[in-house]
Amino acid sequence: MIINLADTEMMLSFAEEMAHNGHRFVAFNTDEVIDTYTIEFFRKSMDAQEYCLVMTNDADYFQSLPVESLIYDLRAILESGIDTTQNEAFELYGFAQLFRERKEFLENNLNLDTMNEKNLEYLKDQLKYTGFGETFDAELKQNMMKGDKDFKIMHTGIINNGLPNKDTLTVELNFKKSEQSDMYFFNSYHVNLQKEEKKPGLEQTFYINKDSASITMKEAYNLMEGRSVNKDLKTKEGESYNCWLKMNFKESESGNFKLNQYHQNYGYDLEASLSKHSIKELNTPQYKEDLLNSLKKGNLQSVTFVAGGAESKMYVEANPQFKTVNVYDTNLQRINNRESKEEKKAESEKESVSKDQKQNPDSDEGDPGRKDNKVKKRKTPTL
What we know:
Blueprint: E1 2-4, H1 8-20, E2 25-29, E3 33-34, E4 40-42, H2 45-55, E5 62-66, H3 67-80, E6 89-91, H4 92-132, H5 137-146, E7 150-159, E8 167-177, E9 184-194, E10 202-207, H6 217-224, E11 228-234, E12 240-253, E13 256-263, H7 270-275, H8 285-296, E14 301-307, E15 310-319, E16 324-328, E17 334-335, H9 337-359
């Protein structure tokens, strides 16, 4: 349909009024500029088609269409922002269709940009909560913009956990695009732990769990150091449970070292195990909570042992397998359990003696030079 651009608003108003009055179809000459005087409205499709059949000849060709289609195209013209004050003949449907396609293209790009931005933020949060911070944000965005089906991000750093050693940790982060959309997912990260003794590196792949807490980079390092980590996991049926994880360096599964699990029903009580030792931090609620949380993450934690009134720095780590805690001196040499028990016993005995002395201030014990000032009652001789 060819119309005069300046007649757009008037044509739209007229078409809406006719539609309101029950007219559902229009008929027009395809070779002429149509206005409100040359367009015909009909209530039935058959009437419109019959009109076109009668009016069509060798010089003129008439066509019919639903009035809603006409209204739809006229509204598109006004929405496009084109100047409708100009007297200019143009093809209505072609222009309207071009505008709609362009609008759809822009909306799709906008939606895609929004989706990609949300995907980027989601991945950044995943990396952050897995212990990688914001180190890879820029590199992550660059790789996503390339649109490859998968990509890797490599990083090498020194980690010492506050201890006198410098281990080299090489991490390979693995990302893959969904086959159903343009969304990327952080699937796993591969760790190579190189000890300073120049021994062959220890390798392990850690997978990102969708339904439960993933193993963080720090926890991964602690596991590869042979320590235990406490995690909340889920069964295949979706039931939550708590357990301790410990890497089994003698067994492997699918190229990875097996992770032994010590379920919550196994009976390991970390707090009770710590209480068997004379650890100063256990006497302060906040320090005690921090200590428990640190050990649950698999850390080798510095603590203060008190024995015979003297304080000494030690290190402890959780040992759920044997339902105890391992104790190390400042040189990271293991202290056997017997010595720890003796320290605890000595401290308890000292506290007990101190308590007894406070409760019995007049006791003669320990004061041999003190004389008995009590007057003894003289016995009366028996006759």
